[in-house]
Design a protein that fits this description.
By secondary structure, the chain is mostly beta strands. Helix content is 3%, strand content 52%. Strands 1, 2, 3, 4, 5, 6, 7, 8, 9 and 10 form a 10-stranded antiparallel beta sheet that branches.
Length: 162
């Protein structure tokens, strides 16, 4: 394959990436992340391996992407206004999650990437009752479960377990 590229200043990454609505190929009943679209302030409580507790404020920005076939976020902790050279090493995230609907399993393939520390995870997301449960592994094969619960119009709980 050969490609010839010409710079087009009227187009942009945002214009090509972002989508206004869900793809018609995703059944409404399987659109389990649509409620998440928008910007969120996060109240983060983290527990490191030694049992220390970190409390911080983060931010998340979520939108539909790739012709509405995926939902992507930018997840930042601590929030941008609080980041700096002294930001904690633990729970220091400036990464992205991309959730892509897979019609063959009627679920979402979820990939988290954090360039700050190289952290990544692969999960499968499904509705389970009133919760959204994402199960998968870290690269070292450690099992993980990330759960959205108590989902309301302006709030939710998120719990990460390993």
């Amino acid at each position: 394959m050969q490609m010839n590229a010409t710079y087009n200043e009227t187009d942009s990454l945002e214009g090509a990436l972002l989508s206004e609505s869900r793809s018609a190929e995703i059944p409404e009943t399987d659109d389990i992340y649509g409620w998440l679209i928008g910007s969120w302030e996060l109240d983060v409580i983290g527990y490191d391996d030694e049992g220390n507790v970190l409390h911080s404020t983060g931010e998340a920005h979520v939108g539909r992407v790739l012709e509405g076939r995926a939902v992507q976020d930018v997840f930042i902790n601590p929030r941008r206004s609080d980041r700096g050279a002294v930001s904690p090493k633990f729970a220091n995230w400036f990464g992205t999650t991309i959730r892509i609907y897979d019609p063959s399993i009627r679920a979402w393939r979820v990939n988290w990437l954090n360039p700050h520390d190289g952290f990544r995870a692969e999960l499968i997301g499904r509705r389970r009752g009133k919760e959204i449960v994402q199960e998968g592994t870290f690269p070292d094969r450690t099992p993980i479960r990330w759960t959205f619960s108590d989902i309301a119009k302006n709030s939710f709980q998120w719990r990460g377990e390993r």
